[in-house]
Amino acid sequence: RKGAGGLFYLLKPGKTVMALLGSAILAFGLYNIHAFSGVTEGGQLGLALLLDHWFHISPALSTAIINAICYWVGWKTLGKSFIAHSAVATSGFSVIYWICQQFPPLWPNLVEYPLAAALLGAVFVGVGCGLCIRVGGAACGDDGLAMSISEKLHIKIEYVYFFFDFVILALSLTYIPLGRILYSLVTVTVSSKIIGIVQRFQLPKRRVASE
Predict the structure, then answer these.
(1) Contact assessment for residue 132 and residue 23, using Cβ atoms and an 8 Å cutoff
(2) HEC secondary structure over 4-66
(3) Do 42 and 114 form a contact (C-beta atoms < 8 A)?
(4) CA–CA separation, 136 vs 202, rounded Å?
(5) Tens digit of pLDDT per residue, the chain (211 long)?
(6) Per-position b or e across 52-63, b if 16+ CB within 10 A of its CB
């Protein structure tokens, strides 16, 4: 089947629901925790902010270019199924984030507790991204890049996430105070680990009773 419409036949109901659930958890956590707590992630968002600060490149432009490159790499490496499930995850993320914006944040006082914000935010990011990746999709472009590198180099995906996040956070020290970076390092370390756990988690197999 040719064309973008032909991608829909690759979607399975169970995987589609899981991709939407993951993107919803991710959007909820980013809006209610990261957007207001002052604790940020590395990756694509951190790179966009870095480019904006030093080169005055608008995040609207840089994130569009970064996403396009990452999704192209993901398509070349992981195939059409990746694009199909990523379309579901990305659309779900945008819709849920917009819905969240219609309400005040649930925990505005988290800004006073950066360590708690870092840990709680890591749980939402880790579980949300992990569920999307588990079904072969990516809510954000850098997720697709991490999946591609993990697939090609046979490296656990949490190590890929942590490496890129660490590099971006290290570069961000050029304009962000060390204290904020340390809390961000906590959240990317924990979220990377959770992503790997969720991606590989398997329910115990039932033993068939012998007759």
Answers:
(1) yes
(2) HHHHHHHCCHHHHHHHHHHHHHHHHHHHHHHHHHCCCCCHHHHHHHHHHHHHCCCHHHHHHHH
(3) no
(4) 16
(5) 454 555 566 777 888 899 999 999 988 988 888 777 767 777 887 788 788 888 988 766 887 788 889 889 988 898 888 888 888 888 888 888 889 888 888 888 888 888 898 899 899 989 999 999 998 888 888 888 899 999 999 999 999 999 999 998 999 888 888 888 888 899 889 999 999 999 888 766 655 444 4
(6) eeeeeeebeebb
Q: Rounded distance, CA 148 to CA 69, Å?
A: 12
Place of tokens 């995987």: 15
Tokens of 71: 């999704």
Say if CB 46 and CB 116 are below 8 A apart: no
Dihedral of the CA atoms 191, 192, 194, 197 (nearest 10)?
Answer: 170
Torsion angle (degrees, nearest 10) of CA 39, 43, 48, 53: 60
Cα 110 to chain centroid, rounded: 21
Here the tokens at position 111 are 């800004």
Contact 158, 146 (CB under 8 A): no
User: What stretches of the chain show up as alpha helix (H) in DSSP?
Assistant: 13-29, 35-37, 43-55, 59-78, 80-101, 114-134, 141-153, 157-172, 178-200
Eight-class DSSP state of 155: -
